[in-house]
Amino acid sequence: MPLISIVIPTFNRAQALQACLESLYALDAVPGGFEIIVVDDGSQDTTRQVCQAWPQIRYEWQANQGVARARNRGVELAQGEWIAFIDDDCQARQGWLTALWKACGGDESVMAASPLINALKQNPFAEASQSLLDYVYSCYNTEAESAHFVAGANFMVSKKRFLTLGGSDGRYAGAGAEDRDFCARWLEANGRIVCLAEAKVEHSHHMGLREFCRQHYSYGLGAWRFHQQAPVGKGGRGMRTPGYYWNMLTHPMQKPGGWERLRLTGLIVLSQVMSTLGYARATLQTPRS
After folding, report:
1. Helix crossing, 209-229 with 259-284: angle to 10°?
2. Which domains does the chain have, with CATH numbers?
3. 52 FRET partner, CA 20 to 30 A, in 40, 157, 181, 254?
C-alpha cells in the first residue's frame, strides 16, 4: 500500500484538474510512494473522462455535497497512512510532496502546509483574493513552525488523526471557513501546524466580478457559522488585533504601481462588503430563541 494518499476534491473544472494531475505525476518519487484519489462532487463537464485517461487514478463520484464532504470521502477511500490535500485548480511544484512529508516527520500531531502562489497575475480578482490570503497568513502565521491557519487547498495530515477529529465539517457546504474550522479543532486537540515556504503550489483560480463577489459572500456565511462554534484562542476566535481590518485595507498601498494599488484596494473593500452581507444574511436567518 502507498504511504501517502493525495486527495483532490473537484467540481466542474476538468481543464484545471488535468493541469493539477500532470503536475502531481511529474513530482519526484517519495519513499513509500503515493496514490491519487479524485472525488468528483457531481461535475457535469468532462471530469470523468479526464480521470479515465489516467488508469492509476482512483475516481469517486458523489452527488454535489460540497468540498468538505468530498475531502472526507477521499480520506475514507485512502489506503495511505498520510493524506495530502490539493485543490483541483492548483499545480504542485517539484519538491512539494517531499517537503510536506519531511515536515510531518511521521509525527501525527503535525499538519504541514505551504502558502499558495497566484498563477494568474493578470487577473485582478485572483490577485485580490491572493493578496487577502497573503495578509491573513502574515497575521496568523508569524512563526512558520507554529502557524494558526492554512487554506484547505494544500496541506498534509495523518489519516488517523484526521478521522479522530471528525474530518472536515460538512455543515459548511455552500459557505467558506471549513478550513478555519478544521485548523481550530486541530490546534485545540494540541496539534501543531507548520507552514513551509519551500513546498510551493501555484493556484489558478479563474474568476470574474460575479464569482469574486460570490466567493467572498460565501466566506461571510462561513464566518458566521465559525464564530458560533469555534473555540476562543489558538486557531479560533479572539486572535485579531484592533487594527486587523484597517491594515487589511491599507496593505496593498505598500506595493509598487499606482492604478494597480488602487484597483487592488477597491477589490479588497468590495470583498469585505460581500463578506459582511453574507454574515448579515446568516445572522438574520437564524431563529431567535
Report:
1. 50
2. 4-283 (3.90.550.10)
3. 157
Q: pLDDT grade, residue 110 (50/70/90)?
A: very high
Closest by CA position to 67, among listed 23, 126, 8, 132 = 8
Q: Which three cell numbers stand for residue 36?
A: 491519487
Cell, residue 64:
454535489
- DSSP output for 183-196: HHHHHHTT-EEEE-
Q: How many residues does the chain have?
A: 289
Smallest Cα–Cα separation from 70: which of 43, 39, 42, 45? 39
- Give the pLDDT confidence of 156-179 residue by residue, as tens digits: 999 999 999 999 998 887 778 899
Tell whether pTM > 0.90: yes
Burial of 111 per CB tally in 10 Å (0-12, 13-18, 19+)? buried
Q: What are φ and ψ of residue 178, in 5° steps?
A: -65, -30
